[in-house]
Automatic annotation (TrEMBL):
Domain called Aminotransferase-like plant mobile: residue spans: 3-184
Natural source organism: Rhododendron griersonianum
Protein name: Aminotransferase-like plant mobile domain-containing protein
GO BP annotations listed: meristem maintenance
InterPro entries in the cross-refs: AminoTfrase-like_pln_mobile, MAIN-like
Superkingdom assignment: Eukaryota
Length: 199
């Protein structure tokens, strides 16, 4: 059997932080964050944990997956201004509060412009990470011509003439009944639920 090597270069630190935030049992102890510090400052120069058996740790930590780790932010963090004690509807208009405008961009389908690439972004496929119940992902038609300047202008255009739903800090998202039925009936899941029930 022959093995081939793969060289991968990417900002894997971002992926590592994403994993540590959502699987807290796998991550190190966090640094305290001062007022105005970016969220990533919590991970600066932390001591990497000695996980040992990563496969076992992942299996055990899957039960405590954090869909919205940022809602636990201290009151001085900008994200805390987004999620309040209760849900709210915000009228979207020019010169909207920055944190609401950012959230609006996060939940809007778009072409994301990267370094020498344009990727389609479908936030409705990962609604739970925004504190919303996951529904069956629908199809979205894009009319992209691959021009990064046009796509960037489209992404950064003002958000207007809409209402934005901001879930409560305490809301725990789940899947809709329609999603659950779709999942049970999809061909890719035959036997998965049965096997999980036997564990």
């Amino acid at each position: 059997m022959s093995h081939s090597a793969l060289t991968l270069r990417a900002p894997l630190q971002l992926l590592q932080v994403w994993i540590w935030e959502r699987f807290p049992a796998l991550g190190p102890h966090l640094n305290p964050v001062r007022d105005g510090d970016p969220i990533l400052a919590r991970w600066h120069m932390v001591k990497k944990p000695n996980t040992g058996n990563v496969e076992l740790a992942m299996a055990l930590s899957g039960r405590c997956f954090q869909w919205r780790p940022y809602v636990m932010a201290e009151t001085h963090q900008l994200i805390h201004k987004l999620y309040g004690e209760t849900e709210k509807w915000v009228s979207v208009r020019p010169h909207l509060v920055e944190v609401w405008e950012s959230f609006g961009r996060c939940v809007r389908v778009a072409d994301l412009v990267g370094l020498d690439c344009i990727e389609q972004y479908f936030p409705h496929c990962v609604a739970m990470q925004f504190g919303m119940d996951q529904d069956v992902p629908g199809k979205v038609v894009f009319h992209s011509d691959g021009n990064s300047e046009i796509e960037w202008k489209n992404y950064s255009r003002p958000i207007s003439d809409a209402k934005l739903y901001i879930p409560s800090h305490y809301f725990e998202s789940d899947v809709t009944t329609r999603y659950l039925e779709w999942w049970r009936n999809s061909n890719g899941t035959k036997g998965v639920v049965k096997e999980a029930g036997n564990i």
